[in-house]
Amino acid sequence: MNKRPFIACLGVAVALATIADSASAAILEESAHYGSISSPLPIGSTESLSLPQFATSLGTLTGVTIELYSYDTISSVVFNATGQSAAFSGATATMPVTVTTALDAFDVLTTSAQGTAGPYASLSSAPFGLSVAGSISIPRQTASFSAGDLDFYQGVGVLPISVTVANSVGAYSGNGGSSLFFGGNGFSYGSVEVDYSYSPLIGEPVPEPGTLCAGLAVMSICGVEIARRLRRTSSRPLSLP
Q: What are the angstrom distances between the C-alpha of 30 and each of 22, 65, 159, 225, 230?
């Protein structure tokens, strides 16, 4: 038995199974951002966000995944208590930046990034005020969980989200005389994403274009192969017993 038509037909079966599976499951992504790269939230700040609930008109909700992405910065800060510029060195701030995202009392995500900014040496040219000696950026921090109470996430309203940037006690040091004081600050910006997994209602156009194209391509190859096989069979002379 020639296996080529069999393999081609098997490809059709796989393609049809892929499309059928795509039609039985879908994912809807919703996201909201806090702060921005040009205006991150400093430690001690809270921002309120909201994401839409899953609309049951789309289908049956089967799962919810919430993800928190935070991009954090730590800065070494110098306070000049005099009316003149003053030189400093060894300005260093070691501290964590903690971002907490709360949807309710149970669904809470937290990221915590700790780093050291410094040591820096420069001139404090901001008398009677704060100046930034230097800053470091910390790679993206992530946290996620799968929700258990699906009813909380579906409806026609919104999900209220509270994002808080905080820190625990840090360590600060520097040299510059009794008129200079050394401290630090932390900043964060990022996003909260909710992925709704669901089974679409019958008639909803859910397969992705790429999935459909792949399935059609496999079926086209199958058709060409079968046609070639039939032509070869029909062109052979009939052998009589």
A: 20, 11, 11, 44, 51
